[in-house]
Amino acid sequence: MAKARISISLDQDQAExxxxxxxxxxxxxxxxxxxxxxxxxxxxxxxEEQFAEVDALIARAEQAADGLPAERDGxxxxxxxxxxxxxxxxxxxxxxxxxxxxxxxGHAA
Length: 109
Fold this sequence. Notes:
Radius of gyration: 24 Å
Shape: elongated
Strand content: under 5%
Number of helices: 3
Helix content: 55-70%
């Protein structure tokens, strides 16, 4: 596989700390930085995957809200429909860690 060179700039103190950590890990600086970046990317991907359903739900709610009339000052908001109530409960369940079947992902059933 072809290798690419990336140049970075950092403070001298940061560079020294990275060199020390790489040495303690038995790696050269380049391998150490690639390892650290790869681990961070995997963590970010996992977080994005975990919250993808919540993000999609929020996007759908924002899109639906764009078509609603603006609430007038002093006028109470209309009651939620049964469908809207279910959607709110579903969104809150996702935020609090329950899946669509009411289970807590990652917990034993």
